[in-house]
Amino acid sequence: MVDYHVHTRRCGHAEGDLSTYLAAARARGLREIGFADHIPLYFLPRTARDPSLAMAEEELPHYVGEIKALKITHPGITVRLGIEADYVPGYEKELARILRAYPFDYVIGSIHYLDGWGFDNPEQVTGYEGRDPDELYHAYFTLLGQAAASGLFDIMAHPDLIKKFGCRPATDPTPLYENTAAIFARAGVCIEVNTAGLRAPVREIYPAPAFLYACRRFGVPATIGSDAHHPEQVGAGVGEAVALLRETGYRSIAVFTRRRRLFLSL
Ligand code: ZN
Ligand code: FE
Ligand code: FE
Ligand code: ZN
Predict the structure, then answer these.
(1) Mean pLDDT across 74-80
(2) What is the pTM of this model?
(3) Distance between CA 249 and CA 111 in Å, rounded?
(4) Taking the C-alpha atoms of 85, 66, 6 and 157 in order, what is their torsion angle to the nearest 10 degrees?
């Protein structure tokens, strides 16, 4: 199998260097490992960037260079150069400029902020107090759809991350899932089946089965990622991800080279 969402020590909140992650992937028999570390916080002024959330701007060329070197020096497993990039409305040009400068195999788009609130950050979990889950879901999925439609991304990360700490809407989210799946299909992006949800308080893969099912019906391809922040997490939950994909009718997953999509059968 493959794991397309792996972080490294460079982002400031993961442990282990590239070679340790690669060794873990080989030990687990993965056929591809895709690194997708956090892009520098380009949407914040330099002085406001938290070094424990993402790599510094001057680190990015080194990140890219190291992974390119890894592709060459380690046969037997395919190494992909990805990046996890935040989507922040109003900063599309800045992000496009960074992405253009490097030969990424794929770009994973993430929503980690709603109006500056880092809703998936354990240190900001009190932000859920006094907020209406239905409104949060609506705001989150609106932004996710906007991100997909921006054309900047190949894959949408942990697509219902808003549930991380157990936030659940009172009303049926199926219409949100279907609208978003339709936007994904039109935009030509993939949905990421991200197993970090199994390790989060919610204890459920991102996305919810009903969201993945909507994506399958709209013809949205899927990728698989562990969101590993430690070498031991490489490939974690990938078996569950494959089972969920098969249950929802998927028969293949997408893989990428130089932002071109190919399919592997499941
Ligand atoms: Zn991270
Ligand atoms: Fe993320
Ligand atoms: Fe991540
Ligand atoms: Zn992530």
Answers:
(1) 88
(2) 0.97
(3) 26
(4) 20
